[in-house]
Amino acid sequence: MDVVFNSIYARACMGAGLSVLTGIRAFLPVAFLALYSRLEFASSPVLDGTFFGFLEKTWVLALLFVLAVTEMVMVKVYTVSLLRDQIMRPIRIFLGGVVFAAAMSPEGWIAMVASGVLGLVITGLADHVLRSTRKGTNATRTALVLISFYEDIVVLIGTLLFVLVPLIGALLAAFLVLLVYRVRVRGKRKHGGLRILKG
Hints:
Layout: H1 2-5, H2 8-22, H3 28-39, H4 58-77, H5 82-104, H6 109-134, H7 141-164, H8 168-198
């Protein structure tokens, strides 16, 4: 059962899943990963003694959760904000690399660095899909706020689920790849239709 709950494969799946969730909410995944590590909860990696051990410090945890709550509130107050998206996008991508690297940090420097880079890519793709699905939407403000609440719930449940059963993270990462493909196909069809209209 170590392969499922406490192995390099399990931590890689956990990190991949958390990186996807970071593309939705920047601070929640890393905050909960640090909290679960401090509590030694379920299959969470032990960050103490690693490069990311500082994440378990009380003041760092408090800061991460304050930023997480602030982000959740801002998303609901400013449902459509180009400035907010421009500010948060690099932060999400950076923290996506951090959360994956932190999940893999017990495996050593090589695994940590490689997974950190992969986390940047995964979170960047997740952020791209999220922005693409919202682009040009005609949804009302109420609908966007409701969607935001659903996103909060998905991130909260997903973060807990990936710590309990890390391998599920691989399924979310695979689903992200499918979504990226769908967004690209839809974009090509849209541009193809515009070329036909212009012709």
